[in-house]
Amino acid sequence: MHVAVLCMTVLTNSLPITLTERESNEDASAVPKQHDSSHGNTVTHKDNDEMNIGQERTGTIFDRQRALDLSQTLHEEHGAGIENRYTDRASGKVSHEFFEPSNTVKIEEKGIIGLDEYEERMRWKTLLEKLARDEDAVPYDIPVLSREIKDHVDGERIRKEMAEQSVIGEVEQPEPKWWEQVSEEEFKSYVNGLQNEQLRFGEQYPRWFSRADVVRMEMLSTAKVTEVYHMDGHERLRLLIFDDGRTEPISDFDFCSEQCGVQKSVDDWFEIFAFHLDRVLGLHRALPSIARVIKAQAGEGIFAHDDRFTDGKPRPVIWWDPDIKHGGYFMENQNSLDLSWTDYQNELKYRCNSLYEKEHEKYYCRTRIKNIEWGKLSVFDFLLQIHDRLDRNCCGYDTDQGEFCMMNGMHDDCDDVDKQFLVHIMTRQEDRSRLVFIDNAGNRKRTPSHLNYRLLEGIREVPEEPINVLRSGNLRGMLHESLRIDKIFWKAVGEEQGVNILVDIIEKRGEILLKYIDGHSMDIIPDY
After folding, report:
1. pLDDT band at residue 495, thresholds of 50, 70 and 90?
2. How far, in Å, are 177, 279, 283, 515 from residue 472 at the CA level?
3. All residues at 6 or more sequence positions from 77 whose CB lies less than 8 Å from its CB, including other chains
């Protein structure tokens, strides 16, 4: 079962903003202690005029005669012109594609390529050959790679799949949800009849919530839990199946449609705040989240011997989106695709999938994600100081303020860019051009003078709507209006006084963010 591991921080029994310290590092298994670079090495694409733009790893300039020999071999085996893509005759450089020393050659003595580099290339070859054999194992970014290493894999099936997925209009559209088929008056009538004391929507619920948000929050708040699943190695999480009264009952999490959720730890309460911030800013990338106390009833075996269903503490419950794409090979199911820090920076540098014209037509983009999506993510992550996605190793922190990544050895990899990969980069099956934000608990304790600016590195486009909200002076009032709806959360953080402390943090970071955007002349543009 593919489940995105959602690691964060949560709501506790200590009410006003004592907002407990992070409960413990008990779920260290959710954060690997080492990044094995073999899991995520990427093949970079180059043409003659791209050979010197910093995409090659250091130490990979090859012997000139060997380069010319290889060029001739490529020309003979793959046709005229192919050597121009992989070999720079003038400099004698060879890009990594197609360059493979023989297994029988002692490559250290030849001085052609480093042993570590060679072993990584061979791991990639093995992986790609496996992907060509295993139809169920192809992550969506592999087709892009296969165009340039087609002689190592049977790429015909992969290219066919990519072509099918890219044809607009041929993708089967999902059935419309019931709330999409009713009138505005009918939906208001539904909201007025909810009779839920824990969610205070009222007829005029905030405009930043969609109909889907309202329905899903209501389900998470009130629906009966029919099944509970544990995740091996992740004791902080419980996977829940609800009886929502509308969808067909299920007993297997793999068949979830609308009726599933994830209950998180008492430490992860900030995830709920993050959801409301996402909606208020107009990003609409986080999943609906509410606070709920789920109590075991007498005789309910599914809750047996589980303290979290008997201790009376409110915990975040987050809607499970069955359409999220899982399958990145790095960190297994915690990604929709594998993306190294270097590749990510190149996606930004060349404005991949941007409304603007691409900066360099000969650069091969690694993903289908729209450029503006990275701007949304960076704004969101900077305000909440979520380092886990873009800066897993905490390389952007100039001081240790207690983050787990500063203690478990991951920060030591900041000197080696080849070991730095993005995590929790999620898209949906039906739209792989847009991100989904998971694991959003963030870090409210980071002081203003020691924020992580690496989260903004390389960003050139930021979305207009969140910037307008930050500049408007209305953020506090909007967050109060939004958070007040979730009665359990509101009370657990200390009501208005507690919420004000949280908003103070975000407003201060917002001021710093706006100065950074202005100082770096970023493009503020409408969503696309």
Report:
1. very high
2. 34, 16, 16, 15
3. 151
Token pair of 280 as six digits: 């208020």
398 & 307 share domain: no
CA angle (370, 373, 374) in 5-degree steps: 105
**SS3 (DSSP) at 120:** helix
Instruction: Report which of residues 183 and 407 the model is more confident about.
Output: 183
11 contacts 18 by C-beta, under 8 angstroms: no
On the CB side of 157, CA atoms within 13 Å amount to 12
Residue 147 lies in a domain: yes
Instruction: Give the Cα separation of 512 and 520 in Å (integer).
Output: 12
Q: What are phi and psi of 243, to 5 degrees?
A: -95, 100
| Strand residue runs (E) in 326-448 | 426-427, 435-436
Range of the domain at 64: 48-166
Helices (H) and strands (E) in the chain, counts: 15, 11
- H/E segment holding residue 157: helix 156-166
Single pTM value for the model: 0.70
339 and 482 in a common domain = yes
User: Sign of the C-alpha dihedral, residues 514, 462, 428, 152?
Assistant: negative
pLDDT reported for residue 410: 74
Q: For residues 479 and 475, give the distance between their C-alpha atoms in angstroms, rounded to a whole number.
A: 6
173/176 Cα distance (integer angstroms): 9
At 318 the three-state DSSP class reads strand
Q: What is the DSSP string of 98-116?
A: T----TTS-HHHHTSS-HH
In angstroms, the CA 371 to CA 434 distance is 9
Hey, how many other C-beta atoms are within 10 angstroms of the C-beta on 33?
9
Residue 287 lies in a domain: yes
Instruction: Return the bridge partners of 261, or none.
Output: 240, 319
